[in-house]
Design brief:
The protein is of the alpha+beta class. It has eleven helices and ten strands. The protein has a ten-stranded antiparallel beta sheet. A hairpin with a 2-residue loop joins strand 3 and strand 4. The N and C termini lie close together (10 Å).
């Protein structure tokens, strides 16, 4: 499980001075394009299911699923040992030391067979610090300029792409959770360089999995019911409980969107908008030791923790 799309770039220096344009195109199963730009000659093609771009100074594997190339479909994801064998396979086919290639993108993913349709879980995943939340027809995105968190229906995606669905997942509700590291990976992991061989280094791989888990846990979870609501003589507590009913009915993203609209039209100040957003988030927060929590979120959280553990 876990490893999915990985972008790799091997420089001429890292290869020991190989003549890329002479050797690599001969290894590709099909040539997509070739030509000359102001930066020199280039060739693009495929190595199995992997997209490959070749110039005089580098070979790049990009926008490709290593697990689809290695396992035959992108429903599955690569384990640490599978990742090692895939890097070795690429190295053997291209006759290049791709274990020394720089890594510029890492996608971590796992499929979960859920009790209910995938969409019902999205509305109970609230805001996440440093991310913009965007709910779409078949998915929920959390995005910033370096990372993306993504939840979507995997079976639905396969049907849209007219790709086969493995027997294990047929007629099931399959929710896929992905964490994509897209930019600044060395800074992200506090490394001077990030090489392909680290993808199957036990310490680094375990840290990746922990980060995948933690990014999910840092998303604010929203309560679904007020079974915890008890009789109260507190006017403040009573109003907060009523406010929670309203937020759950309309959806936290809709409420926060309205606050953003007020700020954009100048009806409230930036400071007032910040305070309102904080108030909404505080109302929606489920205390960690709350006995009555969201059953849907409990199901998803349990599966994420189990996947990270095993």
């Amino acid at each position: 499980m876990m490893l999915d799309n990985i972008d790799l770039k091997l420089s001429k220096e890292q290869s020991g001075g190989a003549d890329f344009l002479q050797s690599v195109p001969n290894c590709l199963t099909s040539i997509k394009s070739r030509g000359v730009t102001e930066y020199g000659e280039y060739v693009t093609g495929y190595l199995g299911k992997l997209k490959v771009s070749v110039t005089e100074n580098r070979v790049k594997i990009f926008d490709s699923s290593l697990c689809k190339d290695y396992l035959g479909d992108n429903f599955k994801t690569l384990s640490k040992s599978d990742g090692r064998r895939e890097i070795e396979k690429i190295s053997d086919l291209l006759h290049l030391p791709f274990q020394n290639a720089d890594v510029s993108r890492i996608d971590l993913a796992q499929n979960f067979i859920m009790q209910y349709p995938e969409k019902v879980y999205y509305s109970y995943l609230g805001e996440a610090k440093y991310y913009s939340r965007l709910e779409q027809n078949n998915g929920l995105y959390y995005q910033n300029n370096k990372r993306t968190l993504l939840f979507y229906g995997k079976v639905h995606e396969q049907k849209i792409k007219q790709q086969p669905i493995p027997e294990l997942y047929q007629n099931k509700h399959v929710l896929r959770y992905e964490l994509r590291f897209l930019k600044g990976l060395c800074k992200e992991f506090n490394l001077s360089e990030l090489k392909a061989y680290l993808l199957y280094d036990e310490v680094f791989y375990n840290n990746l999995v922990k980060r995948w888990r933690d990014e999910y846990l840092w998303i604010q979870k929203i309560s679904t019911k007020l079974n915890t609501m008890k009789a109260t003589g507190s006017k403040k507590q009573f109003i907060e409980n009523l406010a929670l009913f309203t937020i759950l009915e309309l959806g936290q993203p809709s409420i926060l969107g309205k606050v953003k609209e007020w700020q954009a039209t100048g009806e409230i100040s930036k400071k007032q908008a910040f305070e309102l957003r904080q108030s909404v988030k505080e109302i929606c927060t489920i205390p960690e030791n709350n006995e009555v929590q969201n059953d849907l979120i409990n199901e998803l959280t349990r599966k994420v923790k189990e996947a990270a553990r095993y």
